[in-house]
């Protein structure tokens, strides 16, 4: 997961937050379908347009229903990441708590610094 996974948060101007987990694997559609079932009891795998190889992507939207998010968190707490991707995961894993503590307040002012920090880590 370290090399091919992505923890994503997108902040839209209409104050909408998208929280996603994505995983790419070459020629491993069945593996990704099984991962999708593990995390959310459904599969959301599709073939990406690539040159020369079949690359499949598991893409999971984790909000507003936080069940798949919780399952992903539980998985990575048990099987921790080994690379600097762990830093991205640490920010990403705090989103739900920040959201739930601030959902009737100014949530977006709290979450925006986390999103900016993730962007800096990806540079």
UniProtKB/TrEMBL annotation:
The UniProt record lists the keyword Mitochondrion: yes
Recorded GO MF terms: endonuclease activity
Source organism, top-level taxon: Eukaryota
Keywords: Endonuclease, Hydrolase, Mitochondrion, Nuclease
Classification via InterPro entries: Homing_endonucl (IPR027434), LAGLIDADG_dom (IPR004860), LAGLIDADG_Endonuclease (IPR051289)
Pfam family, one: LAGLIDADG_1
CC annotations in GO: mitochondrion
Domain annotation Homing endonuclease LAGLIDADG: ranges: 1-95
PANTHER family cross-referenced by the UniProt entry: INTRON-ENCODED ENDONUCLEASE AI3-RELATED, LAGLIDADG ENDONUCLEASE
Protein name, per record: LAGLIDADG type class1 intron encoded endonuclease, COX1-ai6 protein
Lineage: Eukaryota, Fungi, Dikarya, Ascomycota, Saccharomycotina
